[in-house]
Amino acid sequence: MTVTVKEIAELIKGELVGDGSSEISGVSGIEDAEKGEITFIDNPKLKEQVRTTKASCIITSFDVEGADKPIIKCKNPSLAITKIIDTVFPHRINHPKGIAKSVSLGKNVSLGKDTAVGANSVIQDDVSIGDGSIIYPLVYIGEGVKIGKNSIIYPNVTVRERAIIGNNVIVHSGAVIGSDGFGFVKDGASLRKIPQMGIVEIHDDAEIGANVAIDRARFGKTVIGKGTKIDNLVQIAHNVKIGQNCIIVAQVGISGSVDVGNNVVLGGQAGITDHVEIGDNVMVAAKGGITKSVPPNTIMSGIPARPHHLTKRLVAYIDNLPKMAEKLNELEKKLK
Hints:
Layout: E1 3-4, H1 5-12, E2 15-17, E3 23-24, E4 26-27, E5 37-41, H2 49-52, E6 57-60, E7 71-73, H3 77-87, E8 104-105, E9 110-111, E10 116-117, E11 122-123, E12 128-129, E13 134-135, E14 140-141, E15 146-147, E16 152-153, E17 158-159, E18 164-165, E19 170-171, E20 176-179, E21 184-187, E22 190-193, E23 199-202, E24 207-208, E25 213-215, E26 221-224, E27 229-230, E28 235-236, E29 241-242, E30 247-248, E31 253-254, E32 259-260, E33 265-266, E34 271-272, E35 277-278, E36 283-284, E37 289-290, E38 299-301, E39 306-307, H4 308-335
Parallel strand pairs: 4-5, 5-6, 6-7, 8-11, 9-12, 10-13, 11-14, 12-15, 13-16, 14-17, 15-18, 16-19, 17-20, 18-23, 19-24, 20-25, 23-26, 24-27, 25-28, 26-29, 27-30, 28-31, 29-32, 30-33, 31-34, 32-35, 33-36, 34-37, 36-38
Antiparallel strand pairs: 1-3, 2-7, 21-22, 38-39
């Protein structure tokens, strides 16, 4: 399928600069794009690649000089490219279809219309899976699990007993939903395991990355809010409650009984201690260490994490310590 540059500009409501008659047959990154493809840049640091890319059209959010090809300007180039792919060049994946012969089905299993279950998956008793959901091969779904409509569970995922997964949820390979919370109590000289009797509940439109571990609650629920996106290799402990539309980047660790608000962003390798509250719209920089509750609309960074403007000042002071030491030595010599 091909479309013209002008048609794409109209689709994304962008401002076309240059000839709109060129035909576009695909989408690619700025370094890999070939003639006939459209690409985008949303970082001024990549301006120089405008002159070297082979793409036939570039979507950008800022003024570009010296380009020998059509430019479409818009507020959010990455979102624009996503709309183009979804509308004009959709990415097709051949998901499993039907119920494979090697599937192990328990008693009282309810499978919705057009549900697919791949080879060698195990589905225990009293499981409910909604219309259009896809269970890939080698998935384990425990007793009493409920999965909504149009969700995708990729290979080697484990969904433990009684977990609830909503509609349009994606769970990537290797994730474990509902593993036991890390709870032990001293019993004399030994450690006694605390029963973890709660569940995990994942709301609609969430996405869980590869090798993510989400622990079940001791009592009640560990909750992942609607639209929240979790990157690979994240640990979420028991009784954590995460709000809507949060972004949690790789290798984040969230301790037990933490309440995370809506629209929160946790940078890579950020860590949060137990029993704190993170307000709405908080941003924690990569490797930020949260040791106490954070009010809404705050940017935090550092170890331990502080408001970002304070962390920057502290870093500046530390960087100046060698010069300050030299001055002190000079003053000491003069005083002597």
